[in-house]
């Protein structure tokens, strides 16, 4: 398999957002000349607004508007000075009012993102460690990454997984100073909570434990003086807690606020906190609006506003409770999430609701895993009960319709979110297609398989028979693979789609950067299966190429594609695999849009290389067909070395030779962290040696003929393609003998000698292969993960090692 290229994550996000934008559910522009908060205009249509984060509706409060206008008249549109020098005249009043709200010293920041960038590097010392909840807001994660330059370890745990948190605490309690756990108070997608009281109990057991809570979604609508969910749970703010709130969103103005009860920590942050020192301060209008909001918060009025919102939240919960809609987390926050599973279902559902007059938000990658796409609905004081009820009725009507439109059903949605399936389901569509899943290639008709998938890689019928034997009955679980063969036929028994998949153990960092894999390999010296997961993959880690026969022109071709994806989803559920991987697609594939709609992300693999030997009579003929530049490469970098070693093609190796080539293959694999996989079982080489379809191109030392310098392990597929599947090399002689280049040359020479019209050179080392005449093609894989934890964990590790 392949690495994700370094820039690929952002490319992937761009492609996902572009897909959603094209579906008309993202990057929209509001219309109209004024806002009431209750409705919002989109593309000329007035919609009821269920997407705001201004839960109390204070952004429309006349007192805040009046204060902002007066501040502009008095002080201008901005106060263009750093707060380190002098603050706007209104700042002191605002700081006093916010301090009164919290009852603790506070720091006001331009916004929460800049606040995190200023506070986290100031609060965390070089001998501390940071542990992130993997659903903590991106702005916190991004600020924490700044600590890597100071070699502060950054760890990550699964969402609200306190046992995992305790394991990390134990790991660092004797080697580090403070152990910071960073989390949200209310999480912005599902509206669920941090287990604040349980965390405080953990802190009593481990005094080093400190907390950094981003509670911007918990502000105003709950707690004493509207100071948020976390402080409401804590009662008092301990010295081991830093608490972030917001002056925007529900507060109705702009800016963010840090509350801190530790005097020395407060002084350290306040005196010099990066962006807190150098960034422009809040505009006078924002400071005045925040001041007006603060006055509401420190008055009894705030509790009346909270109660009004609570009544609407309770009403929405009551309306949802009598439906079978997949509400992901029932709680008392104003944030609700209705799962749709696949992105295309989410697009359809959002568009249907907008068509009925309701504006809602789409939850999509990277905020949630792609197959956990859904609709995020927020309730505010602007919403009236009649439109809340109407929204639920519209969702109850349109959810099954969205499932039907996108050829899915509710069970798949509930499974995607690991919820108990309810009665709601989409239509059961009868099909002329039959889907068969076989456990072994012996159950598949040989000629039919070879006609569809033969002549590629090591997965003609005999090749798969060989692989089944190799990856079965081995001591290590990483060496035992389950093979499944999917055959989809029409009513006449004619194959429309055929492929094979494997269920096997992969290293989670196989798609990570080399330095990350190197660090993880250190952990694996004591825990061999650290960060490894069961993966369902098209093809297998031993094979490369177009692993699927698909008759796209067949009348039922598109339906067969959907059937395959449904079948893979069932296999994933049955096996408990963490990821599904569809590999080796070309750059231009008609599968791209459907796979994005089904929750797959595209990542670029190393380029694939092949050599066309049709009408090539000899090696001399082949060399003459090379470009002048490649012929110069041959004369300079290959030809002078050909006489330095002896080349032998062996159909079978002696026992001592077999031990040597095993060792040489091990040398290559141990150095290839750019393609970090588990080793292959020892039985692989013995079975190769016994199989007539395998042979070995061996480079031997002239001085010591018994010493093997390099070997190419080659498979002959139906005499249609020659497959140099793996290489082994003595790295001590790599440059002296140009071992790799010699082996590439000898492989081409051997295939010509056998009269085989094509070589599948596979992935990686495209630069060297291209110089010897190989055709290079971009290849892509599509990944569908159950959650984003591993992707985010590996992202956090970038730059630490």
From TrEMBL:
Its cofactor is pyridoxal 5'-phosphate. One of its GO terms (molecular function) is transferase activity. Residues 50-394 form the Aminotransferase class I/classII large domain. The keyword Transferase applies. Keywords: Transferase. It holds the Pfam family Aminotran_1_2. The keyword Transferase applies. This is 7-keto-8-aminopelargonate synthetase.
